[in-house]
What we know:
single chain; 126 residues; 2 domains; 25% helix
Amino acid sequence: xxxxxxxxxxxxxxxxxxxxxxxxxxxxxxxxxxxxxxxxxxxxxxxxxxxxxxxxxxxxxxxxxxxxxxxxxxxxxxxxxxxxxxxxxxxxxxxxxxxxxxxxxxxxxxxxxxxxxxxxxxxxxx
Length: 126
């Protein structure tokens, strides 16, 4: 019995280490929380940011126990990120300008085999 428990621990250890290296989940923007401040879980909601309105449902997530407006369809990469990888292949180096900052990254399709876009290698500066 002790051997079986030790074996399970040894097998699970690499997965725990790999999980520890991952960054914490991203927190939704404040506007997403504000959209659901007076609503209940499952209620329809919408958030407008940067002249773009996203519809969704009020829900909680792994990074928060408070209700926020979770998009029906997560937004895709910004047009600048797609343009930065135009004519390139997955894995190629790229850069996107955000305000006064150039953000280096690599071209990637992301989840769901979306468009090839520049994925930052580090979080953008605030």
